[in-house]
Each structure stands twice: as C-alpha cells, then as structure tokens.
Amino acid sequence: MPEQPLEAWIAFGKDLRRFRRQRGATLDQLAARTGYGSSTISKYENAYRCPKRDFVDKSEKVLGTDGDLLRSWEDAKRAVHDPDWHRKVVTSEEEASEIKMWSPFLVPGPLQTRDYAHQIFRDGGPLDTAEEISRLVDLRVGRLRALQDRNSPRLLAIVSEAVIRAMIGSAAVMRAQLEHLLELDAARAARILVVPTDSSYHGGASGPFRLLSFKDRATLVEVEHASGGELLSGETVTRLTAVYGELQTWALPPVASRQVMSEALRRLA
Questions:
Q1: What span, in angstroms and rounded, lies between the C-alpha atoms of 55 and 49?
Q2: Does the pLDDT at position 85 exceed 90?
Q3: Quick one: which of 53, 175, 170, 171 has its CA closest to 123?
Q4: Beta pairing partners, 139
C-alpha cells in the first residue's frame, strides 16, 4: 500500500521545496550541506515524514530563510494537535484560487490585526489560558501571509458597516485594524466592500461564511459556528453563492466602501 502524506505536514513540505528551489539548490546539494539524505528530504517535501528541529535549523542556515521555514515547521507541529475540521479548512483555503468572505459581526479572520484577534479570542474564551490565546492569535494573524505565500488566492471580503464602526478593545485597536484594512484594499491584497447598516437586505443574517473556489474542482463553502467551522458542498454552496451575489449587489462600491472605513478611522483620531 503506497504511503499517504501526513496532512498536517503538507504545507511545510511545500514551503521547504519552494525555499530550496528559490535558492537554486537541488535535493543532493541540500542533503550534502545538512547531513540528511536526499531521499529523506524528499519525504519531508512530500509530507511522508515529519522532520526534526535539527534538520529545520540546519536548512534555515543553508537556505537563509530568516525564520520563515522554522515558523512553517512550528505551524505544522501545532496543526498535528488541531481538530480535523481545522486541518481540512486550512488545506482547502491554501489550495483555493479565490476566497469570498462574508462577515456580519467581525473583521474576517485572515484580515485581523494581532491586537484585534487577541481581543476576540480573549473575550470568546474566558476559560483559555494566556498561552492558548497566544497560540490562536499566532495562527490567525499568520493566515494571510500563508495564503499569499502558498497560492495567493484572490480575496474579496464583504462586511457589514457595523463591523467597521464597532469598538473592539480600544480606540487604538480599532484604529490599527481600520488602517490595516485600508492598506490591504489599497494594495489590492484584498478587496473590501461594506454593506450599509440601513440596507434592507438581510440574506446574510444567518452568519459568516466563506466561498472557496478552485481551478480544478467544485466550490466549497466554509460555515463558521461557535465550535469552529465545517466545509460543505452541494445545495449549501448553491444557496450561499446566491446570497453572496445579493450581498455584492447591496454592498457599496469600492470607493464608497473606502470612504466609510476612512470616516470611521477619522472618528477614532
């Protein structure tokens, strides 16, 4: 029976291969400089084995990845203990060519700043330890960079105006969050549209969701709930795709959406 890749280590393997190729190193060259066999490194890249910290430290020095490879390794180590639904969601997001997000209550996870995410996790997990909250924050704020590094999907986020005007944490936290959204939008790293609070359309009131589109397979939808999230297909995708189309119709155009965010930012000055 052929070996099956270790799901939690797939992203690390892709990162290792990408860094090696970017530096123009062959498997044999990396093997010679780290002391690990080329066949072993190939298994790391294909997620058939999980590497030890020693290999990662040596590869960091050889490839000059400035901590990026180590962070990917640490993410994989944490993912081993993540619930199955989370691993499936993360893998699907990183393979998507386009991610459309709707968020009626909070800034979508991949677009959150560290302080904003910390406030959300602290308030939402009063029984969690500081270490657990810090771990969740690290995972969340690293999502955007991971998506950009691994597949760079097109990101479109529609949020309610209440998200823009809410006070999460403090004025300083909200200022930094709004500045971050405006920067992402200006750089076209993500297009952000705002649905006005006086809109008469409420089809998205059922809760936040994300539509994940792929080049080689059918669209999936990630539905969020209090215990995490799940990936769905079929009729749910059809229904929520229609809802998203309506949300786009009711949302303000890009320039007007930026004006709403800029005005909210000025009020916090």
A1: 12
A2: no
A3: 170
A4: none
Please give the full DSSP string across 38-78, using - where no structure is assigned. Answer: HHHHHHHHTTSSPPPHHHHHHHHHHHT-TTHHHHHHHHHHH
In the predicted model, is pLDDT for residue 96 greater than 80?
A: yes
Per the structure block, which two tokens stand in for 153?
């999907």
Q: What are 210-254's pLDDT values in tens digits? A: 999 999 889 988 887 655 667 788 899 999 999 999 999 999 999
d(CA 203, CA 249): 12
Of 87, 113, 5, residue with least CA distance to 49: 5
Task: State pLDDT tens for residues 24-44.
Answer: 999 999 999 999 999 999 999
| 231: nearest Cα among 100, 87, 97 | 87
CA-angle at 15, arms to 13 and 16, nearest 5° = 65
Domains contained in the chain, CATH given: 7-79 (1.10.260.40), 84-267 (3.30.870)
Question: Binning pLDDT at 50, 70 and 90, where does residue 84 land?
Answer: low
Q: Look at residue 105 and give its three-state secondary structure.
A: coil
Residue with tokens 């970017």: 22
Residue type, 263: E
